[in-house]
Amino acid sequence: MILLRSSLFFLFLIITTILIAGIGSLIGWAIPRPKMHIFDTAWSRLNLWALDKICNLNYRIKGLENIPDESYIILAKHQSAWETIALISLIPGPKAWVLKRELLFVPFFGWVMWYFEPIAIDRKSGRKAVDQIIEQGTEKLEKGINIIVFPEGTRVEPGTRKRYGIGGALLAEKSAHPVVPVAHNAGVFWRRRDLRKYPGTIDVVIGPAIETNGFSASQINAKAERWIEDTVEALPQDKEETSR
């Protein structure tokens, strides 16, 4: 039953991606860039609704009061595809993603991403990619656009860790904009490279904003990593521990 429900959701995800991205690609040129976020927000909310109705997979979020008034950099745990869907609508305000350049060439999804002007990097380019994050990220922050970074760079299985990249923290150091750490346990219910979505409730916790003015990138990264990993470790790590 879980596999059947998960397959139905995957079909729903494909259909909504094609429809919303297709419409966005066709009419995006006529819509002011700030208004384009209605498309990704609608896509996110629609698929979170479908996850609840089809797979009985819901979420609860804490810490929205920690969101600062100024633009900020989100450093988030990366365990699953779930957060790439959810953070678009769960965290308020316009957002730009730091993502690998290849994603822009994914049919429909990648095409419409061009309109949201992500920071699309070549992860093999080393320092050039970091400079791109700093330059483009600072410009967007000054325009009131928040930046989402997965510092681990790839999805990590629950209970394991991966070294945090320095790009997001360097952007915070150079721009002096605050960092908002985000922890969750989505990988418990939707594992990487697994079609199955298990029923339950994903916990999302938004931490207190981290002051960056006067701190080095390594200090900022260490603070964010410590808070994220400690918070993730305290969240339920077994599907049976959660309740709706």
Layout of SSEs?
Layout: H1 2-27, H2 37-55, E1 57-62, E2 73-76, H3 82-90, E3 95-100, H4 109-113, E4 119-121, H5 127-142, E5 146-149, H6 167-175, E6 179-184, E7 200-206, H7 217-234
Parallel strand pairs: 1-7, 2-5, 2-6, 3-4, 3-5
Antiparallel strand pairs: 6-7
Helix pairs in contact: 1-2, 2-3, 5-6, 6-7
Tell me about this structure:
The protein is of the alpha/beta class. It has one domain: Glycerol-3-phosphate (1)-acyltransferase (3-Layer(aba) Sandwich). It is built from 7 helices and 7 strands. The chain has a 7-stranded mixed beta sheet with strand order 1-7-6-2-5-3-4, with helices on both faces. Strand 3, helix 4 and strand 4 form a beta-alpha-beta unit. It starts with a helix and ends in a 10-residue tail after the last helix. The mean pLDDT is 89.
Q: In summary, what is this structure?
A:
With 244 residues, the protein is α/β, with parallel strands linked by helices. The chain has one domain: Glycerol-3-phosphate (1)-acyltransferase (3-Layer(aba) Sandwich).
> Using only CA atoms, what is the Rg?
17 Å
The major beta sheet can be summarized as:
7 strands, mixed
Helical coverage, percent range: 40-55%
Enumerate how many helices there are, as a single number. Answer: 7
Strand order of the largest sheet: 1-7-6-2-5-3-4
How confident is the prediction overall: mean pLDDT? 89
Number of strands: 7
The CATH topology label is Glycerol-3-phosphate (1)-acyltransferase
The CATH class is identified as Alpha Beta
Strand content: 5-15%
Give the overall form. globular
What pattern of helices and strands is seen along the backbone? HHEEHEHEHEHEEH
List low-pLDDT spans: none
Query: In angstroms, what separates the terminal alpha carbons?
Result: 19 Å
Structural class: alpha/beta
CATH architecture: 3-Layer(aba) Sandwich
User: How many structural domains in the coordinates?
Assistant: 1
